[in-house]
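User: I'm putting together a teaching handout on how multi-component assemblies are represented. Below are the sequence lines for each component of a complex, exactly as they appear in our records. Could you produce the 3D structure of the whole assembly as structure tokens, so the students can see both representations side by side? Please keep the chain order the same as the input.
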Amino acid sequence: MPEQLTLAGVRSGGKAALARALARIEKGPDDTDVIDLLSEAYRTPVAHVAGMTGPPGVGKSTLLNGLIQGWRGGGKTVACIAVDPSSRRSGGALLGDRTRLSTDPEDQGIFVRSMAARDRLGGLAGLTVQAMVLMRALFDVVLIETVGVGQSETDVVGVADTVVLCVQPGSGDSLQFMKAGIAEIPHVVAVTKADMGAVAERARADVVGALSLSDHPDSWEVPVLTLSAQQGRGIDELIAAIEGHAGHLRQSGQLDSLRQRQASGWLVDQVRERFGREGVRRAGYLGLERGESPFRRLSEVSRFLSPP
Amino acid sequence: MPEQLTLAGVRSGGKAALARALARIEKGPDDTDVIDLLSEAYRTPVAHVAGMTGPPGVGKSTLLNGLIQGWRGGGKTVACIAVDPSSRRSGGALLGDRTRLSTDPEDQGIFVRSMAARDRLGGLAGLTVQAMVLMRALFDVVLIETVGVGQSETDVVGVADTVVLCVQPGSGDSLQFMKAGIAEIPHVVAVTKADMGAVAERARADVVGALSLSDHPDSWEVPVLTLSAQQGRGIDELIAAIEGHAGHLRQSGQLDSLRQRQASGWLVDQVRERFGREGVRRAGYLGLERGESPFRRLSEVSRFLSPP
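Assistant: Of course. Below is the structure of the complete assembly, with chains in the same order as your input.
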């Protein structure tokens, strides 16, 4: 007989119960008890949700370790979702390789889950949102890590209350992206590898300059920190900056409406994905004959399937 | 009266005619004359299509400049599509900032177009594929640049005959991705910044090691080159490697079937996107009330819209 799925049950059952609940969500996201569980969790949020994004090599994993230890040391419980971008082809999440997090498996106050970004359709939206909502009701902090350039950086906006963008000193492209419309996205910018000295300071100044050109929509002044995760410097400041933004969202009354907008955006993505999938199913065989034009075929399929 | 849209007309009209044709495709991708043009172009490919991808900061733009000049110097005509990943939020392609290509605007043998990756849905698939198909019928080489980690790297597989992955020495994450299922994707790996000496050599050795663990599906041995675009070293070798892979595809008879598979994949993506969009339209208002569960709402919408 399957375990009854309730928020209270998951809460009292610890990490093992949470892992089982996530498996149930994954297996039957439309099951009534799954929807009941998620709806209850959605209505009773506890955690602040921080999203961390940035290009590979920037040092996100080290930073993540520092953040988890910092919060845990302060007595907070932390759940972490590492979104694996490469799993579309390989088919599964690669927890060991990707997250490189050193956490104590016996500690019930730290839960780490690696999730596949399984499909382009819906992006992060898929199960990441369900997992986040459930964890948000159970922990003090939820951390979501995405490796990202461009698109993924905007994806994390759909799930996190506070977006931390990690920038590497000496990589001109980070600034390219700052210029190219990403500047409005982060609530905190972390310039990593401060041990690089002058280069890191220049990167910091460049980021501050780029930010000054953009208007942040919600009257929040974006802190730009330099950190050395290797030396353990700057983690406390980063935690303070994230908590500062959390306080700003609560005090300005924006948190609830932000989360409602995110949930609505997720809903639109999901409806689009479901109907898209259904369309492909109804279209039937979509292979092409040798030399057959995909453009003509698409126009035929579209005509056939949409009533005039 | 609008100009008649034919492949011969675009060919004889030079870059200005191509730019007008692309504008027509963008404006009315389902117009009969657009579909006729694209179908003709699809049936008469000329160019080899090379896709270049890799994380920001790796030096792709410099490399791209070198490749364009190298091919052009050899008398070939080159079209280049730079896919702008950041345009989802900012709403438009940012040609000037993003591509940093120094080409002679008078030269009719070089055409550069920056394209927005406008929507997650369909990814690269949207207009990039139409532009590529048209350019493929008109130029000797088509180069597609995507900034990418994870997902985008797999996207370019859907449009390019030869995928070149650029890897930066000293960035451990490149290797993470090689391990995490990306190793099967590139046909050529370019380790940039060879001027870094021993670090570049170690990166090269690491990549060779990672590749040796994966089976490349089509019996092609992936060349791993070290380049210094700054010093202009290695560009000839990269061109030779890309042309070597082009020859391999032709001689082994794989090129046609590869392109047919790509076109079929594009078709599936497009059908999914169109029906997804139609589903969102039919679902109507998808905003949420305060406290209303998006999970419950999704299950209601799904039930309402799919007949039992």
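A couple of points students might notice: Chain A has a mean pLDDT of 82. The beta strands of chain A are 48-54, 78-84, 110-116, 141-147, 162-167, 188-191, 224-226.
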